[in-house]
Design brief:
This protein is an alpha/beta fold. The chain has 11 helices and 8 strands. Bound molecules: uridine-5'-diphosphate (UDP) and magnesium ion. Uridine-5'-diphosphate binds next to strand 1 and helix 4.
């Protein structure tokens, strides 16, 4: 079991370990410079480690790319991957994962909501032998009450019906060992829910608590509709229970209908045929029509995902790479 042993290059005695920090950027021109500068400054807090900052420009429509290019020109450890358009955060992180050559990979947001000061501690724990360290936000007080309520429900439902466990408050901010990164690179699915994939590849990461900072500039691109779709993606990627549920709903309804029918027949035998019940009939037709449509809708969610997956399109396309780590 080679994977259980700690690779030599984690410690500072052997060859210096290389830490790849993957940062997705979408319209972050006001944050990009500060974020990258903060990450470059880590070199001083984690002596004995080399850093590679992989900045993924996810089709930004503002000046993000110019800022990143500028940083890459003056610092060869800043890698810039420019995607041809906006593919979404999950795809941008996948691009960073594919290009990273480090002994450990750190994923962090480019809007300075995740404190880079946590990274040296993550590295220390990794050097101590942990394969992955996930940051867990202490509170959700930057979110609205409704959002918090909905997220709590999402975690409860998702954990109950799928075979991976998502921890509330644990997002994409984390460190993973190269071996986990290699496992993740083997996954062929192109629609990725990274939080789930991390949990799938390593079910119990060490947790490190932190306080999320407010966004330093710009606005979040995860509005209500996007978050809802993200939640659907999370559930349908890891569970087929929503599909199977309909068999049981159907069985329950048959039992209910059967009981009702016997009751009507018995009543007719005892008291003769009366013919009220138009409203009952109408509501039943509408209700069951609705239930069937929901069933078909759930089926459609999965069929749509199968359709997208069988095309085997790559999750992202790269236009250009600056300081490509794979060339050196
Ligand atoms: N992001 C991205 N592509 C997108 C949306 C977001 O690369 O399509 C990046 C964004 O620049 C930021 C990170 O993903 O670095 C988190 O995004 P955001 O702050 O919008 O999400 P939130 O913090 O609200 O979850
Ligand atoms: Mg953010």
């Amino acid at each position: 079991m080679e994977r259980l042993s700690v690779p030599d290059n984690r410690t500072c005695d052997g060859p210096q370990p290389l830490i790849s920090v993957v940062v997705p950027f979408y319209n972050e021109e006001e944050n990009a410079r500060a974020a990258v500068t903060a990450l470059l400054a880590l070199q001083a807090d984690a002596p004995g480690c080399n850093f590679q900052i992989i900045c993924v420009n996810d089709g930004s429509r503002d000046g993000t790319l110019d800022v990143l290019r500028d940083l890459a020109l003056t610092n060869s450890s800043v890698v810039v991957l420019d995607l041809i358009r906006n593919f979404g955060k999950e795809a941008a992180m996948t691009a960073g994962l594919d290009f990273a050559t480090g002994d450990a990979l750190v994923f962090i947001d480019g809007d300075l909501q995740h404190p880079p000061s946590l990274i040296p501690e993550m590295i220390r724990r990794w050097q101590g032998g942990t394969r992955s360290v996930a940051a867990k936000r202490r509170t959700r007080n930057t979110d609205s009450y409704l959002y918090r309520l909905l997220t709590a429900y999402f975690y409860r439902v998702s954990n109950r019906i799928s075979d991976i466990t998502l921890i509330d408050g644990v997002g994409d901010f984390r460190l993973i060992d190269k071996t986990i990164a290699d496992d993740l690179r083997r996954l062929k699915e192109n629609r990725r829910f990274m939080k789930g994939l991390f949990a799938w590849a390593d079910p119990d990461p060490q947790l490190l608590e932190y306080d999320v900072s407010p966004r330093s500039a710009g606005s979040s691109s995860f509005n209500g509709w996007r978050s809802w779709n993200f939640a659907l993606e999370g559930i349908t990627s890891y569970s087929t229970i929503p599909l199977r549920l309909w068999t049981y709903v159907g069985l329950a309804l048959i039992a209910l209908g059967g009981t009702y029918a016997s009751w009507v027949v018995i009543q007719a035998l005892l008291y003769g045929v009366t013919a009220p019940g138009y409203v009952t009939l109408l509501s039943a037709v509408i209700l069951f029509g609705g239930i069937q449509l929901i069933g078909i809708g759930v089926l459609g969610e999965y069929v749509g995902r199968i359709y997208m997956e069988v095309k085997e399109r790559p999750p992202y396309l790269v236009r250009s790479v600056l300081n490509d780590p794979r060339n050196t």
